[in-house]
Amino acid sequence: MASEAEKTFQRFAVFGDSSSSGAEINNKNFSKLCQDCGITDGKTVTSVDVDTVFNKVKAKDAGTITFQQFTEAMKELSQKRFKEKSPDQGLQDIYQLMEGKNPATTSFYQAIRAGALDQQTNTSKYTGSHEEHLVDSGKGIAGREETTENSGYGKGQKGAGTYDKKN
């Protein structure tokens, strides 16, 4: 029977990697697991620490780590994250953080991008000169552009509208 931590490990291992059996996890998904489960806190444990530990526990030419190696990595990270605790206690605390967690599908960047776009397309926030172009303020095209007369006579020609009168 797989532990809760192992189940979480497997969910992250296969995330976005259809070729993964869930037995091994790549660096990208390992980092995501640490991020999404709150193991990385940006203070005691940073993304650099996560990369360093991953590269330390993996086999020299491997791109992934097994759950066994993952446990080693977590013991090491727990010593940074929970300095005052024993490696085993720290590991248990990390496993508690992982319990029942799934890979988050909306990334931080997507959320930011959506917010920025909303800001740009919200016309109630427009000010000053932009507003006249976007809101129908009655000026229309005549208020902001020089219009040309398309009468068929060249620029500055006299006698516009007299063509029909000639015999």
Give the class-level CATH name of the domain at 4-98.
Mainly Alpha
Q: How is the main sheet built?
A: 2 strands, antiparallel
What low-confidence regions span 5 or more consecutive residues with pLDDT below 50? 110-114
Number of helices: 7
Q: List the secondary-structure elements in sequence, H or E.
A: HEHHEHHHH
Mean pLDDT: 79
Please estimate the helix content.
40-55%
Assign the CATH superfamily of the domain at 4-98: EF-hand
Q: What is the alpha-carbon Rg in Å?
A: 32 Å
* Helix and strand composition category: mainly alpha
Strand order of the largest sheet: 1-2
In whole angstroms, how far apart are the ends?
A: 104 Å
Tell me what the CATH architecture of the domain at 4-98 is: Orthogonal Bundle
Strand segment tally: 2
Beta fraction? under 5%
What is CATH's topology name of the domain at 4-98? Recoverin, domain 1
What form results from the Cα inertia axes? rod-shaped
